[in-house]
Amino acid sequence: VFAHLVQAPEDPILGVTVAYNKDPSPVKLNLGVGAYRTEEGKPLVLNVVRKAEQQLINDRTRIKEYLPIVGLVEFNKLSAKLILGADSPAIRENRITTVECLSGTGSLRVGGEFLAKHYHQKTIYITQPTWGNHPKIFTLAGLTVKTYRYYDPATRGLNFKGLLEDLGAAPAGSIVLLHACAHNPTGVDPTIQQWEQIRQLMRSKGLMPFFDSAYQGFASGSLDTDAKPIRMFVADGGECLVAQSYAKNMGLYGERVGALSIVCKSADVAGRVESQLKLVIRPMYSSPPIHGASIVAVILRDKNLFNEWTLELKAMADRIISMRKQLFEALRTRGTPGDWSHIIKQIGMFTFTGLNPAQVSFMTKEYHIYMTSDGRISMAGLSSKTVPHLADAIHAVVTK
Ligand code: LMR
C-alpha cells in the first residue's frame, strides 16, 4: 500500500549531517547544523550539566513517574524567570503560563496549534529568510504562513525599511514571528532602537508577537542582553508568546528541552489559556520528558551552578566571536575579493556568507566543507585549525 511513495528529500539542515557522515575525507568539515563544537571539533557537554546530572543520580528519592501535561512545574517557573527577568511584571502579576515542551520546535508547534485553534487571526508572518523549519511547523499547526522582508543581500544587513513596510501592511491582529536574538540564518539583528520601533508599530496594529528564543546568552554572551527585545514587549503590558530552547545555551540538544510561555492580560486568562494548552499537548505526546527539564531546574535553582553556567556560556559565545575574527583575518590575508566585514558584524551561531548554492556545492565537492545551500555556515563548527581550510575554499570559489 505504500508502493506509490516517492523518496522524500533529506531535511535541508539535518540532511547536511547525513551527507557529511558519508564522506570518508579526513579533511571534511561540517558547518551545517547549528551545534557547538570545541576547538578540537568535538561536541561539548557542559561541566555544569555533568554536575547537575550527578546530583540527579545521587538523589535516590527521584522516580520516573509521568510528569503533568504541562511538564516540570519548577522548570516552567524558572524558565519564565530566565527569559522575562525575575522582576517581570507578568510574573509578579501571575499572568503568564509556561509549559515545558520538546525544545524550540515543540514549543513553536504547541504555540502554533494553540493560536490556530483559539486566536482570531490565522496568519503568521515570518522573516524572509528564516530557519527552514519555521514555515513547516506553522503550516502543519494550521496557520497560514506569509513572509516579511528582513534581510538585505546588498548590505548583508537588516532591511529595516522593508520590515516596517511589510509589518505595517499586515492585517491587524496578524501573528508575527520574531527571532529574539541571533537571527537564524542571517546573524542579523535589529538594534534596540529598531526593536523599539518594531514594538510600537506592532502594538499600534495589534499584531501578536511570537518570539523564538533559541540562542539566549549565545549572541552577546549575556542572558539579560539577549532577552531584552522580549522584555520590552512584556514591559508594555501587552500579550505575547515565547518559545525557549535549551539546546544551544545549555548544550542539551538531544534532551529536547524547551518551554512555551504565553503572557496574558490577567491571571484569570492565563489560567484558562493553560487549560487549553493542555488539550493541545495531551493528544500530541501526553506529557514531556523529565530528564532534560530536571537538569535545567537543578542549574537554574542553584546560585553557584547558575553562575558557573553563565561562565561556560560566555566561553562558548566568545569562542564563536573569535572564530569570526579569525575567518575574517584569514580572508583578508589571502586578499579574497569582496567585502567580508559581515562575518564580524553578524552575531550568534551563524554567518550568512552570501555564497550561492553553486558555490556551496563546489566547496563541498572540492573541499569537503558541508553547509546549507543558502550559504549559511555554523561558526560554532569551526576551530583555529579548520579556519585556513575554509578560507582557502572561499578564496578558491570566489576567484574561480
Ligand atoms: C539549525 O538551524 O541548524 C539548528 O536550529 C538545528 C536544527 O534543528 O535545524
TrEMBL record:
Keywords: Aminotransferase, Pyridoxal phosphate, Transferase. Its EC number is 2.6.1.1. GO terms for biological process: amino acid metabolic process. PROSITE patterns: AA_TRANSFER_CLASS_1 (PS00105). The keyword Lipid biosynthesis does not apply. Its cofactor is pyridoxal 5'-phosphate. Homodimer. Belongs to the class-I pyridoxal-phosphate-dependent aminotransferase family. This is Aspartate aminotransferase. It comes from Arabidopsis arenosa (Sand rock-cress).
